[in-house]
Amino acid sequence: MHVGPKVTAQARASMAQQVLDLVGKAILNEIRQLLIGDNPVEEPIRYVSEIDSTSQPPSIELRFENTSHIQDLYQRLPIDPQINVYCALSASIRYTINQYKPSDIRKEREVEVYIFNDQSAVELIEEKYRRDEPLFFPVLRAISWKQPLLLVGDPDCPTEMNLYRLGYREAIRTIETILYSHYDPSMPLIGYGYANRQFHMTVFNQGESPKVVSIAGTLPGTGQFVNLRQARLVSGGSPVTEKPVVNDQLQPVVVETRYPDSLLEEANRQFAVELTEENAKRLLNGQKTDVVTTSDGNTGKLYVLNTPDDGPQLVLQDVQQKLTLKESYLGHIFSEKDKANLHKYGDMGRVAELIDKQSGQKFTGFIGVDKDTKTLTVLRADVIRPKIERMSHLKGVTLNGLQKQRLIQGKAIRLDNMTSKAGTAFSAYVRVSAASRGLRFDHIPNGTSENNGSATASDSIGNHDTNQGKTATAPRTKRAPKANP
């Protein structure tokens, strides 16, 4: 078994970062003993530790690759041995973290935080055991708050959760505001509230007068960063559209992109297209670009296909006039309801067991329709699952474990009293969408009876959709896609 790129214990690396590497080794060791044994493995599982700049503060996430074979072995076990594997992994993770003697351990909203003396922490979101799903790996992150920056004003990034990740806990709650205190007395107290479509923060630094920072509600991704120690906007008052500079103790330990920059030159040589910065980033990270036009007049989306013999190859997925469905796709046989949902809504509405064309390995994923190319697209369950598990709130509504589990299973949940970008309340059925590469909201008209945000199971997206249903068309037919998107 090969241990992937690891977090090295450099002088400036945080204790949490070092613990992350030890946990990765411990999990692989347990898997070797419990599942693999002496059996040969063609594609060994490995772990990598990567910067996640989308989290605030920026964190390093422990991620596992090549897990399909391990999950297949796990699924073949009877129920009791599966439980034993889960318990062994859980115990090994906690034992390894505690070897570094954290100064404080807190659990909040199904998230455990192990705090160390160097102002760093390991966040553990442990996957619940599910008898109807394969082995899940826990979400583990290394966090540092030596330079505490708080993202405020972004409705899709709740400030409350960010304060929690910085080591704060709720101290006093009133109708208009919440006061948060830090486990470290040297950190300022934070008062936080929302009124008149503005976020209001009062920062109480020791030896200084309280300072109030007010920020208007903005679009997702355009919030503003507040330096808590100085109680000022990092951007000087203008909306922040980029992420802050990552602390030098949180340096990435693997390459920032999945594929080398040389593929951009190959795209220009092979298809005579010059990609925008955003499309280049998508391509090198294994995603599809927007629709581009090649030198011979073809239009489509570029993506990278990993081939066993020739390595990464560029593929153009052409635009088609209309969606054409065969009886099966990647090993999944479509039911009539599956076909109807794909044609009408652009998503199948449930998770499916699929087979990777290149490796032949099974995986679970969501099937949808790329609205730009009118071709099928797949969102792997192991890509969206960690994001759902890390969510504590969605549009201002608290998510419980059952609701998150149903989303992961491809089912719809009803959430009431969510807050839109404009600050108005709304209700919707929420589900995973392969077509949108994330969550999809099907709004419920005002006057429909509320369900108090409870989870509502749905094996078909057609039962609850109210604002979808038109099948778009493209101008002309192109050649069929060459491989699994």
Automatic annotation (TrEMBL):
Q: What is this protein called?
A: DUF3945 domain-containing protein
Annotated segments matching region Disordered = 441-485
User: Where on the tree of life does the source sit, at the highest rank?
Assistant: Bacteria
State the InterPro entries in the record: DUF3945 (IPR025222)
Q: Cite the record's Polar residues compositional bias ranges.
A: 446-471
Residue ranges of domain DUF3945 in the record: 395-442
One Pfam family recorded for the sequence: DUF3945
Q: Where is the composition biased (Basic residues)?
A: 476-485
